[in-house]
Every structure is written in structure tokens, then in C-alpha cells.
């Protein structure tokens, strides 16, 4: 009898926790635990992976000046490209080692606009 009651309580607890996980958000509300809504891309990075040069193309430039900060995978700042206002900026990768790099696109006030990663492959 004790085992049956324990199993019944366990099944009831599992079904309640599962039902609570199936929450719907009416009226366009956003689930605070889900990933944020996708923003429109501002920067296109190509080619990725890159060998000798990488291009950063600013899409929809509203006469803003941007800065691109590049970090290696350990978090060390590797490059800082300032006052980018043209649509395509090319970066020479001769001083970069093979690996994954993280970039941040910041506006002229220092606000983070977009971030991403690219891969450098040495042959």
C-alpha cells in the first residue's frame, strides 16, 4: 500500500510540474525565459571562415559612425577599428592566429549594436 501511494504522489507531482511548464502567453506577451526576439542585422561578415582578409559590411548605414572591436576566444582584445562609416571595411588577418574571434559592433556612443564571431584558418 505504501508503494502505491508513493508512486501515485510521484506521478501527480510530475504531471503538475509538466503542466506548469506548458504556459502560454496571451496578447503577444513574451516568455522571459526564452531567447530574445531577433533584431535586424546591421553587419554582414564575409568570408567566414577567412584566411587572409575579412570584410565587415554595414547594412542600413544611417550616417552613423561605428567601431568594431575584435577579441580572441580567450577574451583578449586583438583589434579595434574606429570611425567606420563606409559600407565595407576590409581587415588584414596577417597578425591573427588560426581560431575563433568574437567581434562587437558599437555605435559612436559606445552602445553595443551587434556581436558575432568569425573563424580564421591558416593554411
Task: Report on the architecture of this protein.
The chain has a domain at 43-120: Immunoglobulin-like (Sandwich), CATH 2.60.40. Helices cover 16% and strands 39% of the residues. It has one helix at residues 2-21; strands spanning 43-46, 53-58, 66-72, 77-84, 88-92, 99-107, 112-120. The strands form 2 sheets. The chain has a 4-stranded antiparallel sheet, with no helix packed on it. It has a 3-stranded antiparallel sheet with strand order 1-2-5, with no helix packed on it. It starts with a helix and ends with a strand.
Topology (elements, then pairings):
Blueprint: H1 2-21, E1 43-46, E2 53-58, E3 66-72, E4 77-84, E5 88-92, E6 99-107, E7 112-120
Antiparallel strand pairs: 1-2, 2-5, 3-4, 3-6, 6-7
Amino acid at each position: 500500500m505504501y508503494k502505491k501511494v508513493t508512486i501515485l504522489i510521484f506521478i501527480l507531482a510530475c504531471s503538475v510540474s509538466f503542466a506548469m511548464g506548458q504556459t502560454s502567453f496571451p496578447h503577444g506577451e513574451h516568455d522571459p525565459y526564452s531567447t530574445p526576439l531577433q533584431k535586424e542585422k546591421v553587419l554582414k561578415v564575409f568570408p567566414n571562415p577567412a584566411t587572409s582578409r575579412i570584410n565587415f559590411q554595414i547594412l542600413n548605414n544611417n550616417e552613423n559612425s561605428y567601431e568594431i572591436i575584435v577579441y580572441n576566444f580567450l577574451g583578449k582584445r586583438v583589434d579595434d577599428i574606429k570611425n567606420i562609416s563606409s559600407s565595407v571595411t576590409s581587415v588584414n588577418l596577417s597578425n591573427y592566429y588560426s581560431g575563433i574571434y568574437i567581434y562587437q559592433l558599437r555605435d559612436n556612443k559606445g552602445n553595443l549594436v551587434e556581436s558575432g564571431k568569425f573563424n580564421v584558418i591558416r593554411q
